[in-house]
Amino acid sequence: MTALVRVCEVSFGHAGQIVLDRVSLCVEPGRIVTVVGPNGAGKSTLVRIALGLIHPRSGTVERAAGLVVGYVPQRLDIEPTLPLSVRRFLAMAVPGTALGIMQDALDRVRAGHVLDRQVGALSGGELQRVLLARALLRRPGLLVLDEPVGGVDMAGQAELYDLISAQARQTGCGILMVSHDLHVVMAATDEVVCLNRHVCCAGHPEMVSRHPEYLALFGPRVATSLAVYTHVHDHAHLADGSVGSGGRHGPECRHG
Amino acid sequence: MDEFLLRALAAGLGLAIVAAPFGCFVVWRRMAYFGDTLAHSALLGVVASLLLGILPIIGIIVLSLGLAVALAVGQGSRRLGADSLLGIISHGSLAAGLVALSLMETVRVDLMGWLLGDILAVGWADVWLIWGGGAMVLAGLAMVWRPLLAATVNEDLAAIEGHAIGRSRMILMVLVALVVAVAMKVVGVLLVTALLVIPAATARRLAGTPERMAALAGLIGMLAVGAGLAASWRFDTPAGPSVVVVAVLLFLAGQVRR
Question: Which residue of A has its CA nearest to B212?
Fold first, then answer.
């Protein structure tokens, strides 16, 4: 299958600091790729490179031609001086959208009550839901979410994750998601990329599901309600995130 | 009504309409200092025009366009904070303009007129410049309104949705530079930004959409111009500052409400 977005051996630095070191990543239609890692691991930078918002210092980024991207940023700070209703904010994503379609999109993320509110007056959780609704309104081929459930209550988080994975299943859209939670990765993630400036390890949430016969039998999205990804850390990190000399690298490890 | 008052009113009302939507963007995108910098550097443009023997408005427009483009391009570099950089250019060019002006012994310039505006001295040519030029810059703004608004909400989302962010930002800065250059005649170097910022800030609490805020800012600006000119006529106060004082009073009245 052709990839929606393919990031290949990408490096990025900021003010002399290495933020990403030869990172590769690939999202195919209908598949969910989750990037996990600690604060400052370069997750958001990787997402912004994949989106083409910033350019890597080296390496390549390829996106499928004509790809429609829905993006849910980590946060959205609207200038308090800008009067903007949720209705208008949604309409800006897809001009000419009928009111009923917008209302449906909000209902799906359980934020049906905010259509006529001002964006600046929304709570953090409501705003994240609106951002997700807005991204889905675009009927994206690729949905990119940077910590999409920040500020959303626990029950709501599971709901939104269900909605996101349903989107991949029903529409075949590819999903690239960032989470800072290293251990608990959402349901039905097809691939986990553990990032700490370099790719520590990458693979399916459970080792078993990587087996080709297992895939043929159940498909890539075996329903596991909350997959636990075991982080296989076989090397030590120094304080700056580089790999310590005493470390031993696993077979998946691609850094020097 | 005397004809010069009629001209002043026509020029002021036209400027209020033109300045309103730009003022909104200046407020939304926190560009007030940018407008100030353009205005303060205009004095240097006036001096240069006098030395070259061309119309002051041409010198002002050329200088502020150059400055706008330079600032739009230079926004990427981060050696100094943007506000520090603007502060240096703004006051540096104002001071340089004042010094250069004092050195020109052959030409006499109405310094107060340039600093505070001389709306009562505008001619019909100025009025036409404001209405004709104003219509053109408004048309230019209308063309980039959607990408600009999208970028004002969030630049990343706007870029992903296919809006040309860099280009529309550049167009906005150039258009603001033109508005500032034209407005100088009416309210002067020191008060130009007030005409952009205050009506927009006053309109904020009364408006629910960006467009309504721009329209309301236009009405508030026109009210300030009308009442300011009337006060200037009645109390024999300088016209430009009177307009700004009325605008500030309207702003304060808007804050008291509720």
Answer: A83
